[in-house]
Fold:
Amino acid sequence: MDNKSRPIGVFDSGLGGLTVVKKLLEHLPNENIIYFGDTARVPYGDRSRETIVRYADGDIRFLLGHGVKAVCIACNTADSMARTEMEKRFDVPIIGVVEPAARMAAGLSENRKIGVIGTKATVKSGAYARVIRALAPEAEVTSVPCPLLCPLVEEGRFLPGDEVVESVLRDYLAPIKAAGADTLILGCTHYPLLYDVIEKLLPGVRLISSGFASTETLVKTLDRLDLRNPSKKPGSISFYVSDAPERFAENGGMFIGREITGKVEKVTI
Amino acid sequence: MDNKSRPIGVFDSGLGGLTVVKKLLEHLPNENIIYFGDTARVPYGDRSRETIVRYADGDIRFLLGHGVKAVCIACNTADSMARTEMEKRFDVPIIGVVEPAARMAAGLSENRKIGVIGTKATVKSGAYARVIRALAPEAEVTSVPCPLLCPLVEEGRFLPGDEVVESVLRDYLAPIKAAGADTLILGCTHYPLLYDVIEKLLPGVRLISSGFASTETLVKTLDRLDLRNPSKKPGSISFYVSDAPERFAENGGMFIGREITGKVEKVTI
Structure:
């Protein structure tokens, strides 16, 4: 396989990264994709940096074993806790989700008040605030850890009108509302599914999904390195998980926005 | 160390097993205890049998490395999915949480209608229903998977009056209420913290916590094998986790019912 037709590797702790793949399929339809979901060790969001680094290392080695030309960390937790270290360890372009979304927020916020929601680990890392302040030192960043959102989304409780998810979100979003943020980063790849309910609770606030910004950066990186697949055919997509492939196939559809057909392969990493 | 003064090994995927330790400390105050919480891979409740067996195997090997005289699986998921296999693999008394609670429920239920709540894996295993029906073939068992309860409890949302946990529980408990159960097994070691709110929602229903029943079985097993520690001094307790020892020390108190003092050691298994 020549350099350009090699696949793009995407990984996440589980299902959430499929919201990034959804965007990749829209913007890079001719690329081949290898997705790895670390479902035997999901979630990453409550774990320590040391453990997240160890897991991300294994995830990337798995993708490199499949000859990927670039790696997309489609997990805010892994990106914010481990990307710097991964860039030292591996000689492959690594695109995350944090920096692109932070740049977009810093560019778009008019009142310089930006909210960030994410896992405990993502918020603890301070990665979003760091990138935003580097670009807009005057910006006020309000970051809120939202540990209950991933479990709720995975249970299908993400629609407006669900009193439980609305109540939980109302509490989480209160400090962001109080700060008067005009822009909110959905700093976890599960959160695009909560778009409608967050929009309902924070009317008029610009919502930035990490997947969209990340795809834009990936396109630019592939162009800069002359690594775009020249094929005119639709690319292939292969799914690998470390546990419960049937459940991944069954539940993945709501994240990727279409049915997951074809084999989901279980691997032990 | 002689045979009888060797410690009892207790493991769980994370914090929940500490509710079992709480009961052990009450009923076996002179025993030494080694607790292992697999916090780098918690939760087990959504994982496949194959992965749970692999994790339980590692957990027990770790405890055996500390010379334990008996193992208590203080995790309903690991017990229901892996105990039979573990008993084949290891030559040490292994006490679970499922069978003792199921026996107690079968013995106490008057109308022979028994409810079980637990993780997805525990309910899928059918372990509770199997033990209950072996003892009381006429019993009607209504089992409900409750995947949101562990995340809610870990976030401290387990008290009566919390509208989120009450709403989530009202949904989960509806089939059990509809079935007219007079006895409900709290089939996850996190659930004793939900005792008051469940009691509020199911007034008059007998609630059985797996930790209590399990301790009784452990006492009997130690007596039968003549393995009780004859010491009159309070036993020691050592905590090991696979990730984030500080968080374990900080949050463990609400499960074990007293402050966790002393070192919590991090190990990679």
